[in-house]
Structure formats: C-alpha cells, structure tokens
C-alpha cells in the first residue's frame, strides 16, 4: 500500500514569524495575520472566479491594501522586500521530525499544485 500525506505550506509547515520585523518597519506591526488572511482571500477569490491570481501578486496587493487601511504609504521596494522574504521562511521547528515520522511519501503541493515538493 502506498501512503501519501499532503500538506499545505504557508503557516502549516513554514513559520511566518520572521516577517514580523518587516511589518514592524513598515508601521504594520501586529498585522501580519490580517495581511496573510487578505492575501489568501485575494488568491482564493481569483481562483473561484476563474481569474487566477498567483501568491506573489496576492501578497503584494494585500500589503498595499493593509497599508492603505492603516493610512500608511509603502513603496514598491518595501512591498518587494516583504514579499521576497516569503521564499526564505524557515520551517517550524517540529516539521522535520513530523515529516520523517509521516511515512514513506509526504507531498507538499504548492499553489498552483505544480511543482510538488516531496519528503524525503
């Protein structure tokens, strides 16, 4: 029998807390979770309506929207710096052991579902 376990990546496997310092520098301290929820909403609504929005575009849009709601101005460079941090987020400390314990095949679909990252 083949055993496959699929995981979500962001927040489930990856720790978003390293983004907090960047949000603090923009005057958006404590609002990372709100940004992330807005980003997911933008991305999911795009998918549901047939107007695909990739995560980077959704992340940028959500950051612009959050800053505007807070009465702040952010530059394109600042937005790019925050979004670029997403590609270097560390895994939560317990992830490596949990994936090792999960069995022979664990897959992590990215959005969209290609490519697939596999463990081990």
Could you walk me through the main structural features you see in this protein, from its secondary elements to its overall organization?
With 120 residues, this protein is mostly helical. It is 46% helix and 10% strand. A hairpin with a 6-residue loop joins strand 2 and strand 3 (116-119). Helix 2 crosses helix 3 (55-69). It starts with a strand and ends with a strand.
Short description:
Helix content is 46%, strand content 10%. With 120 residues, the protein is mainly α.
Tags for this entry?
120 residues; single chain; 5 helices; mainly alpha; globular; 46% helix; disordered C terminus
Order of helices and strands: EHHHHHEE
Kindly name the structural category.
mainly alpha
Distance between the termini: 18 Å
Poorly predicted segments: 112-120
Query: Would you report the number of β strands?
Result: 3
SSE layout:
Elements: E1 4-6, H1 20-25, H2 32-48, H3 55-69, H4 76-85, H5 95-101, E2 105-109, E3 116-119
Parallel strand pairs: 1-2
Antiparallel strand pairs: 2-3
Helix pairs in contact: 2-3
